[in-house]
Amino acid sequence: MVRRLVASKVDQVLVTGDITHRGYRHEFDAFRNLFEPLRDRLTIVPGNHDRLGDDAGNDMMPNERVRVELNAGMYLVRVDSTGPHNRFLLASHGQITSEDLDAIESALDAAPPHHLRVVMLHHHPVPLPEEQLCERLSTMIGWPYATELQTGRHLLERVAGRCDLVLHGHRHRPSHRVVGTTRGRVHVLNAGDSLTLGAARQFSYRGEELSLPPSWLPLGSARDQRGSSASPRATVAA
Ligand SMILES: [Fe+2]
User: What global pTM score does this model have?
Assistant: First the structure.
């Protein structure tokens, strides 16, 4: 995967959490070693799995819930959507507080002109179909294991008109929803599990103009990849 991403000459690589399986620091170290060739164009957010074990997720965004980065023409608002309950494996759902919503809105209001404005978080803000038996069972008994962010709808209302794209992970199947809000439409996109899919989602942008729908970057052989696009390109992996 890393070889392919390097060969593709993408401008940014965005990884939407669950970087580790059990939240151990040695798992995060292994990820950092693998992704070292992409270090200058790599952006991550923590997922629920990263909060287990050693709480490697805390190393991914130490003492911050919302952080802004400006890279390759993209104004990126990184959001930690995990909560203290994610220290337990069976409580994988996310958490965005009203303070987080205020911080996200303030961050987006400070975006410079002519940049693509992206909000990046792990958990899904929209309802999505359950993918596994344990998710279906938990929904049947009313356990929030597989549900969307409780404040997901509020999040989309707050970011509509302020950002061009919301990226999330968590779910293994890719999705792209266009959600209507009182402030306009929001594109909500999940790359899916890149390793299982054998492909990473890829999109091009120029200034605040985003080319949709996104394409797929195959993660197989790198032999035929030349990376000749003139527009900045970012790849999302989950
Ligand atoms: Fe997750």
Answer: 0.90
